[in-house]
Automatic annotation (TrEMBL):
The ABC transmembrane type-1 domain, residue ranges: 73-262
UniProt organism field: Evansella vedderi
Keywords: Cell membrane, Membrane, Sugar transport, Transmembrane, Transmembrane helix, Transport
Protein name: Multiple sugar transport system permease protein
InterPro entries in alphabetical order: MetI-like (IPR000515), MetI-like_sf (IPR035906)
Length: 277
């Protein structure tokens, strides 16, 4: 039995190592290309180590006036941060109601919300744009922040976590005269830190990498987000790969930092939420 376990672990390790290699090679090429002169960026065969190491591509990307990368970076960071904060607030309040409060039609309403996850998000683009346009939010931060705040996945994730919190804590607080909001704010949320961090990571990454919706609702260069800006750069630079890869590396830095700080909570938060693979 022990020999079989060791063999299975070795096979799993080898398989995962190969998969990790396929995943990391493109990232290494992006990093290597961003540090090369343009003449070496498109050379064949691929040279993984630059013959001439240069940071000029990063300087060109950050300093060009006709391509406001720093503005796009700020737009993405501001929108993703505010959107994530509001998402955590609204989703946690909804999840608390579905998990801990008793009211007529609670389960029917919850599973009705779950059913909406089967609707492809692209089907909502036209009516959502019509709504945004009618209230004058086109080319405005509000159009980038508020749509999508009622994310059903976040409600489901947090509800599953809240259900696992012992009811004795809530009952003790209620006997001391605590209101439902006090219980939610002072007891439930502090105990749900792992699930909240997981949801924050998923939400921030999804909003940071979103391309289609910002492309639709923004019309000026100053309101573009980074993914849309990177697409614009392909035309601005006539697809100069070294500069484009430098911009790609810059766009990945916040997500990498966030993931490094949150990775220890990911498995814990999902496991305690009762979601099994």
């Amino acid at each position: 039995m022990a020999i079989e376990d060791k063999s299975s672990k070795r096979i799993s390790f080898i398989f995962l190592s190969i998969m990790a290699l396929f995943w990391i090679l493109p990232l290494l090429w992006v990093l290597s290309t961003s540090l090369k002169p343009e003449s070496q960026a498109i050379s064949w065969p691929i040279r993984w180590i630059p013959e001439t190491l240069t940071f000029q591509n990063y300087q060109d990307v950050l300093m060009r006036q006709d391509v406001p990368v720093l503005r796009w970076f700020w737009n993405s960071f501001f929108v993703a941060t505010i959107h994530t904060g509001l998402m955590l607030l609204f989703n946690s309040m909804s999840a608390y109601a579905f998990a801990r409060l008793k009211f007529r039609g609670r389960d029917v309403l919850f599973w009705g919300l779950m059913a909406t996850m089967m609707i492809p998000p692209v089907m909502n683009l036209v009516p959502l744009y019509g709504l945004i346009s009618s209230i004058g939010w086109v080319n405005n931060y509000a159009a980038l922040i508020f749509p999508g705040l009622g994310g059903v996945f976040g409600i489901f994730l947090l509800r599953q976590f809240f259900i696992g919190i012992p009811h004795e804590l809530e009952e003790a607080a209620r006997m001391d005269g605590a209101s439902p909001f006090f219980i939610y704010w002072k007891i439930i949320l502090p105990l749900a830190k792992p699930a909240l961090i997981v949801l924050a990571l998923f939400t921030f990454m999804g909003n940071w990498n979103d391309y289609l919706w910002p492309l639709i609702v923004t019309t000026s260069a100053d309101m573009r987000t980074l993914p849309v800006g990177l697409a614009i750069m392909q035309g601005q630079f006539n697809i100069q790969f070294a500069k484009l890869m430098a911009a790609t590396i810059l766009s990945a830095i916040p997500v990498i930092i966030l993931f490094m700080f949150a990775q220890k909570f990911i498995v814990k938060g999902i496991a305690l939420s009762g979601i099994k693979g």
